[in-house]
Design brief:
Layout: H1 6-21, E1 25-30, E2 37-44, E3 49-55, H2 73-82, E4 93-99, E5 102-108, H3 115-121, H4 126-143, E6 152-155, E7 158-161, E8 164-165, H5 170-182, H6 195-211, E9 221-223, E10 233-234, E11 240-242, E12 250-252, H7 254-263, H8 272-288, H9 298-320, H10 328-347, H11 352-363
Antiparallel strand pairs: 1-2, 2-3, 3-5, 4-5, 6-7, 6-12, 7-8, 9-12, 10-11
Helix pairs in contact: 4-8, 6-10, 7-9, 9-10, 10-11
Length: 372
């Protein structure tokens, strides 16, 4: 159910719109896009389009399942303001408003279409996809030029962690996320995994956290993290024009961002050759922007693997928590992610493409480009 009806959304935003733009609303519709907030596209008399963003759950604060960050409109307002005067294509903030105890944001409507839609309309073009990957490398390199003083969750009050204040040690922060946020929920999987398997998972994380060295050359970096292919807007050439959803932002090691890109945008096509080509194109573009990242460095590889294992476990917990009446693909995801989790614990190697395959199959994407 929508948080507000169309008429209610219009009634909530009309006065704020008139105060900001001296114009009336002539059109409003609910945006059909994912996210932890509900968006409405508003059209003004002059043709200007604005996005009104409300919390989906009303007064109840939602918490992201990976880092435990409070997904409030107020936090998103702060994050957007942090990027407002940077080259990152995030939406301009017009105002943080409130009516009848319902806070909402008014932000710029970014131009562009989703990568998935563009590729479908162009027979999964290889050149369009590589244009996107090159643009992605440039964008992430620019993003990672923004540094913080501590590792942790980015809040208006400062950088925080599950233990309170942020930390100057990335592994300390990641350890807190895993040991305080994720592993305490492991018993929820007793119907999925044996007692021995559950013990193996816990031991894997504990051993990895002790065995990895801190990357002393790294500084706390701006990481958006949730950068799946539908979290970008692109133009007709595949170049990124917008990143509308930044609510998972953390101050973290660059490997946290790169590790998840391996499982998402760089695995859009699950053919091994194309997965490798995407990585090569990404890092060539990334390094040209002045940032340096060595994907072959053993410490970085272990940091990537640890972050992805935590993501994998949180994915299993998230889908396992769904109602039995949810769609069949939820159950497929849960089983696949469980198998990936155990295989990685036993072999020490995460099969990235095996992780992505059910997502590709559900979305009907080919394993490789279908045209030049």
């Amino acid at each position: 159910m929508p948080l507000l009806t169309i008429d209610q959304a219009k009634e909530h935003t009309s006065q704020a719109i008139e105060d900001l733009f001296s114009q009336k609303i002539i059109g409003i519709k609910e945006a059909k896009q994912a996210g932890r907030h509900k968006n409405y596209f508003i059209t003004l008399k002059s043709g200007i389009q604005v996005v009104a963003r409300f919390q989906k759950s009303g007064s109840k604060v939602r918490v992201d399942p990976i880092f435990g960050s409070n997904s409030t409109i107020q936090r998103e307002h702060h994050l957007l303001k942090l990027l407002e005067h940077t080259p990152i294509p995030s939406p301009q903030v017009y105002s943080l408003c409130e009516k009848n105890n319902k806070p909402f944001l008014l932000v710029e409507k970014l131009e562009g279409t989703s990568l998935d839609k563009l590729l479908k309309e162009n027979n999964y073009s290889a050149s369009l996809y590589l244009n996107f990957v090159k643009s992605l490398g440039e964008t992430i390199a620019t993003l990672q030029q923004k540094k913080f003083n501590l590792y942790g969750e980015v809040q208006k009050s400062g950088i925080t962690s599950p233990n309170g204040q942020g930390t100057n040690n990335y592994l300390d922060w990641l350890s807190q996320i895993i040991k305080i946020r994720t592993l305490p929920r492991i018993d929820e999987l007793k119907s999925r995994l044996s007692d021995n398997q559950l013990t193996q998972v816990v031991e894997y994380f504990n051993q990895e956290l002790v065995g990895i060295q801190e990357d002393s050359n790294s500084k706390p970096t701006c990481v958006l993290y949730d950068l799946h292919v539908n979290n970008f807007l692109v133009n007709q050439k595949g170049i990124i024009t917008g990143m509308p959803d930044i609510e998972f932002m953390q101050a973290a090691h660059p490997s946290l961002e790169i590790s998840y890109l391996y499982l998402q945008s760089l695995s859009y096509f699950t053919n091994e050759t194309w997965h490798q080509k995407a990585q090569e194109t990404f890092f060539e573009s990334f390094n040209k922007e002045g940032e340096h990242y060595d994907p072959n460095n053993q410490t970085i590889k272990r940091l990537e693997n640890l972050a992805n294992m935590n993501r994998l476990l949180t994915a299993v917990l998230s889908y396992n928590d769904r109602s039995p009446n949810h769609l069949d693909w939820h159950e497929l995801y849960t089983k696949t992610f469980c198998n990936s989790l155990i295989n990685t614990v036993e072999t020490g190697i995460l099969d990235r493409l095996g992780f992505v395959e059910p997502i590709r199959n559900k979305n009907g994407r080919p394993k490789e480009p279908q045209s030049a």
